[in-house]
Amino acid sequence: MIRGGHHCCQPFMKKLKIPGSCRVSFGIYNDANDIDILIDALSKTIKLLQ
């Protein structure tokens, strides 16, 4: 699961001067393949945003 927003830490976000962040959460049902998929997606996103 990936979630965007403040994650109940608005003061911290204000201190960092950012509007929000993304948080990734894993569950007992996730496996190494799920992590590989996440890393691949993050790499593609970084390249897209550069």
Architecture blueprint of SSEs:
Blueprint: E1 2-5, H1 10-16, E2 21-24, H2 32-49
Antiparallel strand pairs: 1-2
Report on this model:
The radius of gyration is 13 Å and the shape is flat. The chain is an alpha+beta fold. It contains two helices and two strands. The protein has helices at 10-16, 32-49; strands at residues 2-5, 21-24. The protein has one domain. 50% of the residues lie in helices and 16% in strands. The mean pLDDT is 91. It has a two-stranded antiparallel sheet with strand order 1-2.
H and E string: EHEH
Helix content: 40-55%
Kindly estimate the percentage of residues that lie in beta strands according to DSSP: 15-25%
The side-by-side strand order for the widest beta sheet comes to 1-2
Average pLDDT level:
91
Show unreliable segments: none
| Count of alpha and pi helical runs | 2
Overall tally of structural domains: 1
- Shape assignment: flat
Radius of gyration: 13 Å
